[in-house]
Design a protein that fits this description.
With about 450 residues, this protein is an all-alpha fold. It folds into two domains: about 20-205 and about 220-225, Up-down Bundle (Growth Hormone, Chain: A); about 245-360 and about 395-440, Growth Hormone, Chain: A (Up-down Bundle), CATH 1.20.1250. Helix content is about 75%, strand content about 0%. It has helices spanning about 25-40, 50-55, 60-85, 90-110, 115-145, 150-170, 175-180, 185-200, 220-225, 230-240, 245-265, 270-275, 280-300, 310-325, 330-360, 365-395, 400-440.
C-alpha cells in the first residue's frame, strides 16, 4: 500500500480554500492566461517539417537543427533563470516575448538552413527566458496578494487555454498557407507580439518577491548586480543541495516532461504510421489529444482528495509508462484511444508537479533560477532521449523503444517515490521530536 506523503492536498470538485482572488490577483491571472496562450501559439508547428523540406532542407539538416535546439535550450536555461532573478521575472517575460517575435520572422526573411538554424536558436533563447520566469512571477504575484491557493487552478487554466487555442487554430494553417506561404510564421510573430503586450501590462512585484539570494540585506539590488553569474549559479545549486525534498521533486518531474515531449512531438507520427493510420488523419488525432490534455490541465482538482499530490504525480507517471507499453499491443483505434489517455494524464500531472516544486522552493531562494534548474534537467534528459529514439527508429525498433521507455520510467519513478517516502518519514520524525521538546518546555535550572 502506498502511504500518503505530507504536502498540499488536492480536493475534488471544490472551490479553492480561502477568500476569492483580489482584483490585482484576477488581473494577474487574466494577463498570465493571455501571455501563455499567445506566447506558445506557434502556428507553424504542424507544418514546420514540410515547410523546411519545401525550402530545400534535407532530413539530416532538419533533425540536426532539432538536436542543436535541445542543446541550446539546456545551455540557455540557467543564465536566463539568473537574469530573471536579477532584473525581475516581469522584465524577463518581456524580453522573451521580444525575442520570440523576432525569431518567428526569421524564416520569412531567410528561408534557408542558416535562417532556420537562427530561428530555432532564437526560439530556444525566448522560451528559456520565460520557462522559469512565467511560473515564478505567477506564484509570487499570487503570494503577494495572499491568494496562493489559486495558483494550481491558474496554472492549469493557462495551459488549458493555450492548448484549446491550438486546437482551434492549427486546422486553419493549411488553407492559410495556400493563400500566402509564410502565413504560419507571420501569425506566430503576431501572436508573440500580443504576448509582449500582456507582459507589459503585468503589475510590478514588491522587492520581497524578486528572488533575493541567501544573505541579502535590505534587498540590495546594486550589490546583487555586482555579483557574477557563476556565483549566482553556485548559490542556486546550494539551495538545491540544502533542500533534498526539492531535488527529489525535480527528478520526479523528469518522467512527465520527457515522456510527454518525446511521445507527442518526436514519436507521434511514427507511432501512427506504424499502425497504418494515414497522414490525413494525423491532424484529427493530434486535435483529439490536445483536447484531452486541455480538459485535464484545466481540472487538476478532479484528482481525489485522499491521495497526496506527490503520489498523484507518481501514479500518473506510471500511467504514462503503461500507456506506451499498451500502444505496442493494440490496433489503430486502441492506439488513438491510448494516445488520448496519455495526453490526459500529462494534462493532469503538469500543474500538480509545477505547484509541488514551487511549494518546495524556500521563500528567500531565487525562484526563477531554481525553476530553470528543473527545466534544464528535463531538457537534458529529453535531448538524450531524442538521440536514443533516433537510434531505435533507424533500426526499425519502435516497439522495443516504447517498452524500454516504459520500463525505465517505472523503475526511476518507483525509486523516487521510495526516496520521497523515506524523506517524508524523517521530516515527520524530526517535527514530532521538536513538538515534544516544545511541550516539555525548557529544562529546570540547577
Amino acid at each position: 500500500m502506498i502511504r500518503r506523503l505530507p504536502g498540499p492536498r488536492l480536493t475534488a470538485r471544490q472551490r479553492p480554500a480561502g477568500p476569492p482572488p483580489t482584483p490585482v490577483a484576477r488581473r494577474v491571472i487574466r494577463l498570465n492566461n493571455g501571455f501563455q496562450l499567445l506566447f506558445n501559439l506557434l502556428w507553424w508547428m504542424p507544418v514546420f517539417y514540410a515547410y523546411q523540406r519545401q525550402a530545400g532542407l534535407s532530413d539530416g539538416q532538419i533533425f540536426g537543427i532539432q538536436s542543436i535546439y535541445y542543446i541550446a535550450f539546456c545551455l540557455c536555461e540557467i543564465p536566463t533563470g539568473m537574469v530573471a532573478d536579477r532584473i525581475g521575472a516581469r522584465n524577463c517575460l518581456r524580453a522573451g516575448a521580444v525575442v520570440m517575435t523576432a525569431a518567428n520572422l526569421v524564416p520569412v526573411l531567410a528561408p534557408s538552413y542558416a535562417g532556420f538554424l537562427v530561428h530555432f536558436l532564437a526560439i530556444a533563447a525566448g522560451r528559456s527566458l520565460t520557462s522559469g520566469a512565467a511560473s515564478a512571477y505567477l506564484y509570487d504575484a499570487l503570494a503577494e496578494e495572499r491568494c496562493e491557493e489559486h495558483y494550481l487552478k491558474a496554472e492549469g487554466t493557462a495551459r488549458a487555454l493555450g492548448l484549446a487555442a491550438k486546437v482551434m487554430c492549427w486546422p486553419l494553417v493549411g488553407p492559410l498557407m495556400a493563400v500566402a506561404h509564410p502565413t504560419p510564421y507571420v501569425l506566430s510573430a503576431v501572436s508573440a507580439a500580443g504576448s509582449l503586450a500582456c507582459a507589459v501590462a503585468l503589475p510590478r512585484l514588491a522587492p520581497a518577491h524578486r528572488g533575493e539570494a541567501p544573505g541579502a540585506h535590505d534587498h540590495d539590488d546594486i550589490g546583487r548586480r555586482r555579483g557574477g553569474l557563476v556565483r549566482d549559479a553556485a548559490a542556486a545549486l546550494r539551495w538545491v543541495r540544502a533542500t533534498p525534498w526539492l531535488a527529489l521533486l525535480m527528478v520526479q518531474g523528469v518522467a512527465v516532461f520527457t515522456l510527454s515531449r518525446i511521445c507527442q512531438v518526436n514519436l507521434f507520427q511514427p507511432i501512427l504510421m506504424a499502425h497504418g493510420i494515414g497522414e490525413s488523419a494525423h491532424g484529427g488525432v493530434l486535435a483529439a489529444m490536445t483536447v484531452a490534455e486541455a480538459v485535464a490541465s484545466a481540472r487538476p482538482q478532479w484528482l481525489g482528495r485522499r491521495t497526496a499530490p506527490t503520489t498523484w504525480v507518481t501514479l500518473l507517471s506510471l500511467a504514462l509508462a503503461g500507456t506506451l507499453a499498451g500502444i505496442t499491443l493494440g490496433g489503430p483505434w486502441t492506439v488513438v484511444a491510448l494516445l488520448c489517455v496519455f495526453a490526459a494524464a500529462t494534462g493532469f500531472a503538469y500543474p500538480v508537479q509545477r505547484k509541488l516544486v514551487n511549494d518546495a522552493i524556500p521563500a528567500l531562494a531565487p525562484r526563477a533560477t531554481l525553476l530553470s534548474v528543473e527545466s534544464i534537467v528535463d531538457r537534458g534528459v529529453c535531448a538524450l532521449a531524442a538521440v536514443a529514439a533516433g537510434a531505435y527508429l533507424s533500426a526499425d525498433r519502435l516497439d522495443v523503444l516504447l517498452w524500454h521507455s516504459a520500463i525505465v520510467t517505472a523503475v526511476v519513478i518507483i525509486a523516487v517515490q521510495l526516496a520521497l517516502r523515506s524523506r517524508a518519514g524523517r521530516r515527520k520524525s524530526s517535527g514530532s521530536l521538536a513538538a515534544r521538546s516544545e511541550r516539555r518546555g525548557p529544562a529546570p535550572a540547577r
